[in-house]
């Protein structure tokens, strides 16, 4: 059972450190990348008690993997935090007050810490969208992050970034002490144990190895128009009967997404799959001719590793973190060039090239581990409290 008293601390071990986790920002089933991050970093602490640690998990609803409070891990559900104004109130005013008596340090996995909190914090900043592409996340969120990321990184707090590329970006925009900065890579192994037996292929009318796919596609940052024009060019060169189809995965969402969907639906061979379950997505990767992930910018790029582990060749951009994540297990393209992406689609359709990339991708993804990332994050949290 979860406790409804947000000020109740854990008292199982008088010598244990009490850590709060601010997951108030996560909308389970909606947030995609950040939900994946929180789940894979925090869930191991929930399932097996780390030595000398106890946790208070602040959220707006319980996550799908929750099976009840544990003696060392309790949830505090603040439903009103689903509204942005209330979440900011909890993050910046309420948590600092609660922290006076309820916990020893705070883990903030969602970009911002609590600027007024008089306890040490470890804060994960996943990207520099607020400075580089504010339009992708909205003006108000950009302003909030640009104000409170630097404020919450003052004093003895530690910054965790998910790539060296993001760390470099943040050094440009925030006054960061390099000694408090930790690069802890994400991973892509969370789809490896699940599948649905090919149902998604039947539903979409697909044949194994006869389609490319893109994920999280219906945002401008994903470079949709260049990719779609490149696909159209590839089809013209390959011939309509020989060309692979292109499956677009993701929630269409706002008017920008709808414009992209309308444009895509007019191109022969393009299939709009919508948002998929992890089981369906796993099957899609396993049978795809290639993941096309030629984004304009990524703080990390989890889909690259998802594809590599599941034996799917990858085409990705030369920009930001993507070469860092992909290693030599992907075809790198100039994300602004239609002809470059079209040529990559043709090249990766060749059996020899695809097999080489699959082999190299398998080697590369083994460098990344969610368990390692979880352990390293906990180490940072423990050290920040010293």
From TrEMBL:
One of its GO terms (molecular function) is glycosyltransferase activity. One of its GO terms (biological process) is lipopolysaccharide biosynthetic process. Residues 209-354 form the Glycosyl transferase family domain. The keyword Transferase applies. InterPro entries: Glyco_trans_1 (IPR001296). The keyword Transferase applies. This is Glycosyltransferase involved in cell wall biosynthesis.
């Amino acid at each position: 059972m979860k406790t409804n008293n947000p000020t109740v601390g854990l008292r199982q071990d008088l010598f244990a450190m009490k850590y709060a986790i601010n997951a108030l920002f996560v909308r389970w089933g909606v947030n995609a990348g950040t939900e994946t991050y929180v789940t894979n970093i925090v869930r191991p602490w929930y399932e097996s008690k780390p030595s000398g640690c106890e946790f208070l998990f602040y959220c707006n609803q319980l996550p799908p993997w929750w099976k009840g409070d544990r003696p060392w891990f309790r949830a505090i559900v603040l439903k009103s935090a689903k509204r942005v104004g209330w979440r900011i109130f909890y993050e910046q005013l309420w948590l600092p007050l609660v922290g006076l008596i309820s916990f020893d340090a705070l883990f903030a996995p969602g970009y911002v810490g609590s600027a007024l909190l008089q306890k040490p914090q470890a804060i994960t900043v996943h990207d520099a969208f607020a400075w580089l592409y504010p339009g992708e996340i909205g003006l108000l969120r950009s302003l909030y992050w640009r104000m409170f990321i630097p404020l919450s990184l003052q004093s003895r707090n530690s910054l965790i970034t998910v790539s060296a590329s993001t760390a470099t970006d943040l050094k440009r925009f925030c006054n960061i002490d390099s000694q408090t900065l930790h690069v802890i890579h994400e991973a892509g192994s969370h789809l490896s144990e699940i599948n649905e037996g090919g149902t998604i292929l039947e539903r979409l009318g697909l044949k194994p190895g006869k389609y490319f796919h893109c994920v999280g596609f219906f945002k401008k940052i994903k470079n949709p128009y260049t990719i779609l024009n490149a696909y159209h060019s590839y089809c013209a060169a390959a011939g309509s009967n020989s060309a692979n189809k292109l499956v677009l995965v993701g929630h269409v969402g706002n008017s920008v997404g709808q414009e992209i969907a309308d444009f895509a639906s007019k191109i022969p061979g393009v299939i709009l799959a919508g948002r998929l379950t992890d089981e369906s997505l796993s099957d899609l990767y396993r049978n795809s001719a290639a993941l096309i992930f030629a984004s304009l910018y990524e703080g990390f790029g989890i889909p690259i590793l998802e594809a590599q582990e599941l034996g799917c060749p990858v085409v990705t951009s030369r920009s930001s973190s993507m070469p860092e994540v992909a290693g030599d297990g992907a075809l790198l393209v100039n994300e602004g060039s239609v002809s470059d992406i079209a040529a990559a689609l043709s090249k990766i359709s060749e059996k020899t090239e695809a097999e080489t990339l699959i082999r190299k991708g398998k080697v590369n993804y083994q460098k990344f581990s969610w368990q390692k990332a979880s352990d390293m994050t906990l180490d940072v949290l423990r050290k920040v409290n010293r």
